[in-house]
Design goal:
Largest sheet: 2 strands, antiparallel
Strand order of the largest sheet: 1-2
Number of domains: 1
Distance between the termini: 30 Å
Helix content: 40-55%
Shape: elongated
Order of helices and strands: HHEEHEEH
Number of strands: 4
Number of helices: 4
C-alpha cells in the first residue's frame, strides 16, 4: 500500500445505531398496515387470509339481511390499529368484536335465546397474518424496499 494512501469511511455504525429503533418502528408500521389492508381486502372480496373463498351464507344469515360473509353489520372491517412507537416495538391489530373470533374458528350457536339456536357457522379465517405478508409473500416483498432505503440512509455518514 502506498505511503500516502488514506482510507475514508462513507458510513457510520453509530449513526445507524442511533436510527435503528426508528427504522424498526417504521418497518413494523408499514407491515402492520399492509396486514390490516389485506384483512380488509379479504372481507371485501369474500376471501380468507389464505386466499380461499368464504363458505357461502346459510339461509338463516340471509334472512337476517346478510348478502356477503362477514359484511352483514359492517363491524368486522372496523379493526383497531395500535401502531408501533419508540419504546413499544409492536404493531397490534384488534378484532372489532368477540364475534369475529368465533367466525375465525367456526362455531355452533348455543344460545337458546337466539332464534337461530343450534345452527352452525362455518370457519372463515378472516383475521390473522395472510400468506402474502409472510416472509417471501408478495406483499411482504413489496414492503422490503422501504426498509432497505431506511437502513441505507442510516448507514450514510453525510446526509
Amino acid at each position: 500500500m502506498p505511503k500516502n494512501f488514506k482510507a475514508r469511511s462513507t458510513f457510520s455504525f453509530k449513526k445507524l445505531a442511533n436510527k435503528l429503533e426508528s427504522i424498526i418502528v417504521a418497518d413494523l408500521n408499514v407491515k402492520g398496515n399492509r396486514i390490516n389492508k389485506a384483512i380488509q381486502d379479504g372481507i371485501d372480496s369474500g376471501k380468507d387470509i389464505n386466499g380461499k373463498a368464504f363458505t357461502k351464507l346459510e339461509p338463516t344469515t340471509i334472512a337476517l339481511g346478510g348478502k356477503k360473509p362477514l359484511k352483514r353489520t359492517g363491524k368486522m372491517s372496523k379493526t383497531k390499529k395500535i401502531p408501533s412507537k419508540k419504546g413499544s416495538l409492536k404493531f397490534t391489530l384488534i378484532a372489532p368484536t368477540h364475534y369475529g373470533a368465533y367466525h375465525n374458528t367456526g362455531f355452533k350457536q348455543t344460545n337458546p335465546k337466539q332464534w337461530f339456536y343450534g345452527s352452525r357457522v362455518p370457519k372463515r379465517e378472516w383475521f390473522g397474518i395472510p400468506k402474502s405478508m409472510h416472509p417471501g409473500g408478495s406483499e411482504y416483498v413489496k414492503s422490503e424496499p422501504e426498509r432497505r432505503l431506511r437502513i441505507f440512509s442510516g448507514w450514510k455518514k453525510h446526509g
